[in-house]
Structures are given as C-alpha cells and as structure tokens.
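User: Design a sequence. Structure:
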C-alpha cells in the first residue's frame, strides 16, 4: 500500500472513531432532534417507492444516540406494506426528518437532508435496493 493510500485509510479510521454531535429537524421547526455519531458516516440511498418519491437519504443512528428535543406532539405516522417501518412526519409541514426503519429496528433513520447546515459530517453513499428489500437487507447484514 502506498503512502497516500495508507494516509487515506488512517484518516478514514480516525474519522470513524471520533464522535460528534449534530442536530436537525423539519422545515417549520416544530420537530427538533440531536444525535451523536462518528464524523465519517455511511448513508443508504434506497430506491423503494417511498424513498424515491421523498428523496430520503438514510443516516442510521442507534436509539441510544438520538434525542427528540421537541415536537413529539407534532409527529404523525404512516405505515404501508408489512407495517414494520413507522414513517414519522411533521403534522404541520409534512417533512419526514426521521423515522423507525424496518431494516434497523434498534435505530432511527435520519434524513440527511434535514440536518442543520454546518454539521461537519463526512458522508459516503451506499445503494440499498429497497425494491428487492429482503435481498438488500441480507446483503446489508452480511456485508455483501
């Protein structure tokens, strides 16, 4: 491995190890949340019917690293298909800033587009074939 590749790998490992706080919310401000994650994050770009229509880019954050600061009373929900995912959105502006995904039952999926500007996170995007959900979930679990 060359010096540049070694440096890039070391930097990536450091960014994965260093934790930071970030925040976000819906368009009208009724929903606000904060969370902690590594600086380098992987986003899932899902091509299922709802993610394609809404442009949702998934940042998966464990429940223990997420706090809803305000707006619980403004959240409403939508379920479809198996009903396992709980799609939460603001009852005032309609924005889905986070939700409970079927793929990660112990984590929230935060919409990357709903993070506050200047958060400092560095993202890479991985495709998730939500149109073939079972196979995509299996590939996610096995690292295929």
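Assistant: Done.
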């Amino acid at each position: 491995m060359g010096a540049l590749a070694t440096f890039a790998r070391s930097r990536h490992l450091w960014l994965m190890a260093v934790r930071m706080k970030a925040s976000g919310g819906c368009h009208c401000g009724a929903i606000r949340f904060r969370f902690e994650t590594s600086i380098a994050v992987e986003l899932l770009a899902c091509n299922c019917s709802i993610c394609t229509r809404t442009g949702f880019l998934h940042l998966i954050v464990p429940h223990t690293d997420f706090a809803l600061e305000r707006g619980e009373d403004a959240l409403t929900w939508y379920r479809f298909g198996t009903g396992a995912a709980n799609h939460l959105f603001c009852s005032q502006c309609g924005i889905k800033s986070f939700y409970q995904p079927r793929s990660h039952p112990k984590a929230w999926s935060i919409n990357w587009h709903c993070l506050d500007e200047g958060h400092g996170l560095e993202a890479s995007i991985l495709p998730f074939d939500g149109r073939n959900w079972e196979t995509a979930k299996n590939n996610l679990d096995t690292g295929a």
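The helical segments are 3-17, 49-54, 133-142. Strands lie at 19-25, 32-38, 40-46, 57-62, 66-70, 75-78, 87-90, 98-99, 107-111, 122-128.
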